[in-house]
Amino acid sequence: MDGEPDGIPATYDVKKALPELYAPRAGVMAVVEVPEQQFLMIDGHGDPNVSPAYGEAVQALYALSYAVRAVTKEKLGRVHTVAPLEGLWSAEDPSAFVTRDKGAWDWTMMISQPEWVGAEILAAATARAEKKGQAALGRARFERYAEGTSVQVLHIGSYDDEGPVLARMHGEFIPQHGFVLRGRHHEVYLSDARRTEPAKLRTILRQPVAPAP
Predict the structure, then answer these.
(1) Per residue in 50-90, pLDDT tens?
(2) pLDDT at res. 2
(3) Angle at alpha carbon of residue 105, lines to 68 and 176, rounded to 5°
(4) Which residues, given as ranges, of the chain have pLDDT below 70?
(5) 64 near 41, Cβ under 8 Å?
(6) Following DSSP, what letter does each residue of the chain receive, concatenated?
(7) Global pTM value
(8) Phi, psi (5° rounding) for residue 91?
(9) Beta 202-211 vs 185-189: how paired, if at all?
(10) What pLDDT, on a 0 to 100 scale, did the predictor assign at position 96?
């Protein structure tokens, strides 16, 4: 892979650049250090299966991310693979994730962007994406997110089967390793749910943690 003068490769795939975070072994819970990254983000609330705002947010993020990819290729001669969709999830009662009370969930859907993407690239990409009439495009924002020490596991199966895995992560693994929960539950969607059987979905479940007092 040929490098550029600034040390950033001419081609880039976040899954290959950060394999510990985006390509872990299935079923193995691990403590990881997550570096600061920059994301395109859109916020929302409610059950993602029935909320029109959720579908609009995902469509807008992909449209904008593919526009970013096209603009960077044209302007900078750099090619990158569009990163997986990710989600930050929270609720007033954290047990809503174990019980799958989806109507109580707040979410931030997001897609990681290469470090060479800045304001000029984003402006050109936004202008391009706007031509496709994405309803949620105006809700998108571009910001950095620092997660730090986290516990994660690659879950294979339906989203609705995550409850027991999260219960084990929160109730056993995290306290046994001297941590407490911190920040929002994080998921990385490695599969396209529209084309993948629920039993074969690959989802990274991640929880930021802090040392127990």
Answers:
(1) 889 999 999 999 999 999 999 999 999 999 999 999 999 99
(2) 39
(3) 100
(4) 1-10
(5) no
(6) -PBPTTS-BSEE-HHHHSHHHHSPPBT--EEEEE--EEEEEEEEES-TTT-HHHHHHHHHHHHHHHHHHHHHHHHH--EEPPPPEEEEEE-SSTHHHHTT-GGG-EEEEEEEE-TT--HHHHHHHHHHHHTTT-TTGGG-EEEEE--EEEEEEEEES-GGGHHHHHHHIIIIIHHHTTEEE-S-EEEEE-S-TTTS-GGG-EEEEEEEEEE--
(7) 0.91
(8) -160, 155
(9) antiparallel
(10) 77
Q: What is the pLDDT of residue 108?
A: 98
Q: Which amino acid is at 109?
A: M
Rounded Cα distance between 44 and 161, Å, is 23
Report the alpha-carbon distance of residue 37 to residue 144 in Å, rounded: 6
Q: How far is it, in rounded angstroms, from Cα 95 to Cα 163?
A: 10
Residue with tokens 């600034």: 6
